[in-house]
Amino acid sequence: MFGKNTKVDIELNRDVEQLIKSGGKEKILPIVQAGEPVLRQQTAAYDGQLSKHTLVKLIDTMRTTMLEAPGVGLAATQIGLGLALAVVEDHVRDDEDDPREIAEFPFHVIINPKYTPVGEKTASFYEGCLSFDGYQAVRRRWLDVDAEWDDEDGKHHKERLHGWPARIFQHETDHLSGELYIDKAEIRSLATNENLEDFWAEDPVPTEAAEELGFEL
């Protein structure tokens, strides 16, 4: 368990406390947008650099910021912090026929996450990012992954994820290695959120649109 034999980084802990404080009573932090160097940096593995008290407050602030955005995941880099930590959470929608295979993904703190593809099946759907605000594009992702992470208590977890939860986990884990979803998206599919809703909302897997836009799924 991290924290037992590690030393708190006093300077970093102080900086994180200031970051948390900047969110005010609402506990909402500004989300870093594409172009900020922190989004392109490999994060440092978390091994207990923060006090337990500060870590708990950071997680609470990140969750509040994520839900307010609103989003289903938020990586530490998206609030300007270069630590391998993210929060994720999503819930089942009313639409049972959603082809993205949305499933319940309760709130998780994922620290030092990594994933390994299972099989060769992939799925392509429109995807967005709180750090590339206002746009979405089609991104191919592994359909199934074996996910590993530590929680806020230092306990290690392994779980096979499928469909939408697998996509969320991949998206947030990629953030921590300096990757944005747009890096490997089908650029010709890029659309504003408004245009996506107006023109493509009924075709989240844009098979017919693909031929018109000139990309393969």
TrEMBL record:
Catalytically driven reaction(s): N-terminal N-formyl-L-methionyl-[peptide] + H2O = N-terminal L-methionyl-[peptide] + formate
Amino-acid positions noted as binding Fe cation in the UniProt annotation, renumbered to this chain: 129, 171, 175
Family: Belongs to the polypeptide deformylase family.
Keywords: Hydrolase, Iron, Metal-binding, Protein biosynthesis
Enzyme class of the recorded protein, top EC level: hydrolase
GO BP annotation list: translation
Functional description taken from the UniProt entry: Removes the formyl group from the N-terminal Met of newly synthesized proteins. Requires at least a dipeptide for an efficient rate of reaction. N-terminal L-methionine is a prerequisite for activity but the enzyme has broad specificity at other positions.
Protein name, per record: Peptide deformylase
Single GO term (MF): peptide deformylase activity
Enzyme Commission code: 3.5.1.88
